[in-house]
Amino acid sequence: MKQTKPSYRVRPETAVLTSGFDPQLSVGAARPPVYRSSTYVFHSPEAAERAFETVLGRAPASSDGGADLIYARLNHPNAQIAEDHLVPLERGADAAAVFNSGMAAIVTVLLGFLERGGSMVYTRPLYGGTQHLIHQIIEPLGFVAHAVPAGDNRAMRAAVEQAESLQLILIETPANPTLTMSDIRFAADCCAARDPRPVLAVDNTLLGPTFQHPLLHGADLVIYSATKFLGGFSDLLAGAVLARDPRLIQHLRGMRALLGNILQADESWILDSRLSTVALRMNRQSKNAQRIAERLARHPKIRRVLYPSLFEDADQIRIRDAQAEFPGSLLSIEIDGGKAAAFDFLRNLRIGRNAVSLGGVETLVSHPRTTTHSELSAEELDAAGISDSLVRISVGTEHWSDLLNDFTNALAAADRGRE
Ligand SMILES: Cc1ncc(COP(=O)(O)O)c(C=O)c1O
Questions:
Q1: Residue to probe by mutation, ligand 1, list 98, 100, 225, most atoms within 8 Å of CB
Q2: How far apart are CA 419 and CA 406, in angstroms?
Q3: Does the beta carbon of 101 sit less than 6 angstroms from any atom of ligand 1?
């Protein structure tokens, strides 16, 4: 979409509402319409030829920077509008591509940047689906994938130095569901020491785009499950990738056209409509979560609360202070009494809902070992610290003291049930 930028620099909260959509191109509509067309009419056969030359990289893009529209699997106005609004939210980004889920974004990055004979390094734990994707599709295709424990710089350096034909590093920080942080700057420096330099991709779903800015720490790609905070209401599946270098995004758009996993027009419109409130929601959710986490940490039935403001490990504190502005709204608790106690806690919740996913305005609570991360082997789960007693809480925008009461009541009820 043709850009309508103010003549002076504006901050992300302003840019998300003022850039990237020109009402004059849509009969003056203040909100973008949904363009549900699967195909686009060319004004001449020459224009059609030029559009295909451009999309195949044989001719430069048109002077307004927008690719000519051809067919909605390649590109469509609502994807472009959402992408134009995502860019100002991600510090350091110059281009974005939207996908029809977070997994679609991740698989497109992996297949887009791994070439025959190549290898990758990834931090563990990752979201269970991502780890499963590596085991079920990436490794059987012949790519070597080296896992390093999240937050372990020494292991990261060794893996990056030793991996043959290393093409990609994938970091999820903080890691889902242990909240362990990995050092983005350190991984970027490891990448820079290799020739050719591998691509560094960071899954920023848990803290971005508001609290953590991987591109400013040397990452090449930022990946999102936009189903989470960007979408914000648990009613949409979407994914996004952003980069400083538009050529990386151009490459992913080419892959996206072949894989057919672009975000559809209606979903792009919904995602776009949520972007102006992402910082408001994330700030409120993070404040709620911090108040709750710090109180639950003193609860006698809770062995441990995993949450960035409660880190005790000096290295984790160093990484947090270097790259995370606020602790975010995901926390995990380890409840005394193992799986039975964890399940009782879930059963007795009245406000928090026992559901997977995270980042929505409603509080969601789950047991990762038997749900989101159940594809992993017992050995991988243990190595990652995803125990039977671990419960993950995604804190929403409800009043924090109602949530705290709900959690303490559920802990007490669970206890009574077992007396
Ligand atoms: C950190 C992280 N990355 C990626 C994904 C996958 O995203 P989606 O469910 O939108 O495909 C998830 C899903 O929970 C996630 O938590």
A1: 225
A2: 20
A3: yes
Residue 73 among the catalytic residues: yes
Is 2 an active-site residue?
A: no
- By C-alpha distance, which of 117, 318, 123 is closest to 219? 123
Alpha-carbon distances of 328 from 41, 148, 160, 242, 309, rounded to whole Å: 45, 24, 29, 20, 9
Query: Could you tell me the distance, in angstroms and rounded to a whole number, from the CA of residue 130 to the centre of ligand 1?
Result: 8
State the pLDDT at residue 7.
61
Active site residue 203: yes
Pick the catalytic residue from 127, 274, 284, 344.
127
How far does the centroid of ligand 1 lie from the alpha carbon of residue 227, in Å?
A: 7
pLDDT at 337: 93
Q: How far does residue 243's CA lie from ligand 1's centre (Å)?
A: 19
Own/partner pairs for 305-314, CB < 8 Å, 24+ apart? 305/331, 305/332, 305/333, 305/334, 306/177, 306/178, 306/179, 306/331, 306/332, 306/333, 306/334, 306/390, 307/179, 307/331, 307/332, 308/174, 308/179, 308/181, 313/151
Q: What is the CATH number of domain 12-277?
A: 3.40.640.10
Q: Which residues of the chain have pLDDT under 70?
A: 1-7, 62-67, 416-419
Q: Which fold has domain 278-417?
A: Aspartate Aminotransferase, domain 1 (3.90.1150)
pLDDT of residue 185: 98
Angle at 108 between CA 104 and CA 113, to 5 degrees: 155
| CATH 3.90.1150.10 residue ranges for the chain | 278-417
Strand order in 119-124's β-sheet?
Answer: 95-99, 239-243, 221-225, 199-203, 166-172, 119-124, 144-149
Ligand 1 pocket member 173 (CB < 6 A): no
